[in-house]
Amino acid sequence: MAATKKIEEALAHIREAEKSLKTSLLKWKPDYDVAADEYNAAATCYKTAKQFTQCRECLLKAVENYKLNRSCLDQAALISKELGDLESIFTLCQRAACMYREHGIPDTAALSLEKGAKMIDTQLPEKALIMFEHAVDIVITEDRPRQAAEYQSRVSRLNVKMQKYDAATDAIRREICYHQAGENQPAIGRLTVALVLVQLARGDTVAAEKAFREWGSYCENEEVQTLEMLIQAFDEEDGDMAVKVLNSPFIKHMDVEYAKLARSLPVPKCSQETKKPGVTDTYPPYTSSSGADVDALAKGVGSTSISQNDEELDLC
């Protein structure tokens, strides 16, 4: 009975909306604001009655009649989640972000993308990845490297989750640069461990050691010891040591995607007895062969935008 009453109330609001859009001899222009408010009220009634399809239709009509009512798009995305229409969440949140950005509200634009991406990242990780990359593009244009690093971390982890390790390598390096620009050095140490794990997943032990050389100076003692032992184990094909390091509490307590990656790494099958001649257990001091380039990128990060495949990412 209550649901029926709400549906009747919604229909009454729709009639008022349609009436406000009509013109006559004494009324030359449609009243779009009133129509939008009535459609919004109808959507609320339908939502209470759990008529989600009709609710979303009314919200979208409100958007069309009242362009500045961007929150209707966010609400429509939430209703799409109830309907299980995940593709619509992607479309609606992208549209809402562009509208927020056009009207000078970049923070809300990025937040809309973040919320939408979190709704679909399990079932549609590729779409979620695009949304997080769009969010990075928005906030870095506003010269907010710390917020950019937060969104970029989702980009990095989604690439790892999808086993796109080449893309993950680039994403983590970019995340490191944002942390440098935001002067968040502890985060760089943790990401160095993540970068080494990704390089090992690619089967490139040379690149893994190079990453350690490049960023190891940012690592804490525990991170340094872990990476030294891990690289040594892979370099010497010491499977026992590799398993021991990858099962250490430090690795297990990393972000879930990196911890899963560590468990899935193909460890060397040879034992310590096959240790290569001439290999030492110590490493020379850390050096950064590309420090100047990195510093330049970190300083200029506020004035650059995300690019993908050498083309500018412009989702609006």
Automatic annotation (TrEMBL):
Does the keyword Methyltransferase belong to this entry? no
- One short Pfam family name for this protein? SNAP
According to its UniProt entry, the protein's GO biological process terms are: intracellular protein transport; vesicle-mediated transport
**What is the superkingdom listed in this entry's lineage?**
Eukaryota
Which Gene3D superfamilies does this one have?
A: Tetratricopeptide repeat domain (1.25.40.10)
Q: Which InterPro entries match?
A: NSF_attach (IPR000744), TPR-like_helical_dom_sf (IPR011990)
- GO molecular function: any one? syntaxin binding
Membrane-protein topology: Peripheral membrane protein
Chain intervals for the UniProt region annotation (Disordered): 270-294
| An example Gene Ontology CC term for this record | vacuolar membrane
Q: What is its main location?
A: membrane
Q: Is Protein transport one of the keywords UniProt gives this record?
A: yes
Q: Which UniProt keywords apply?
A: ER-Golgi transport, Membrane, Protein transport, Transport
Q: Where in the cell is it found?
A: Membrane
The entry sums up its family as follows: Belongs to the SNAP family.
This chain belongs to the protein called Gamma-soluble NSF attachment protein
Q: Which organism is it from?
A: Portunus trituberculatus
